[in-house]
Amino acid sequence: xxxxxxxxxxxxxxxxxxxxxxxxxxxxxxxxxxxxxxxxxxxxxxxxxxxxxxxxxxxxxxxxxxxxxxxxxxxxxxxxxxxxxxxxxxxxxxxxxxxxxxxxxxxxxxxxxxxxxxxxxxxxxxxxxxxxxxxxxxxxxxxxxxxxxxxxxxxxxxxxxxxxxxxxxxxxxxxxxxxxxxxxxxxxxxxxxxxxxxxxxxxxxxxxxxxxxxxxxxxxxxxxxxxxxxxxxxxxxxxxxxxxxxxxxxxxxxxxxxxxx
Length: 261
Prior knowledge:
261 residues, alpha/beta, Rossmann fold, 6-stranded mixed β-sheet, 26% strand
């Protein structure tokens, strides 16, 4: 058996008096496609932001490809990671956000080339060649010179996916990437993610309220509630035959709201 690409062990995280992660533990295998579902405030987005080092942990340990994320070894002792260590580990992971986060003053291709040029020293010509390949993959090559303000929400999100891929991450994190889109634009972004899942061996973690997509996309589904994983299993097990009462209640509400599962 291969080693987990992500190993989360007893993570705690609070914002003030609100404990958003309560001793969370999970493992993710290389190439696995994971869907994280659950009510708002259950800790799903927080664990993605922690993996991306956008939020720091209060306690516990995380390993990425067998290497500590927030700690480093010195003379046989674990100590808090320095910024150099965090920056190196960050290159293993890409993240696509709910609100795109494109640089508004840079055109599409410059948004995609900036990180490889700054963080990896990729020459401009090579970065642009790779950027055009990625923009072509997400159906945005013809918009390479457009500014973000000239794009629809779905187009912005497809550019954001290309930008995250530009650093060739081993792990991709998707945080509610369709929730800010008009309904008719959702499918174009989901199609790009389907293509990524089918054509690459990247490990992918998806936080979503699109239950039908989660069912079709994921190898495994984790149901979060109050900072813990209440239930996990294959999509059919979670969506068709949930064992835990809390999972059953959540899915009934989702179905009542008109969502396909």
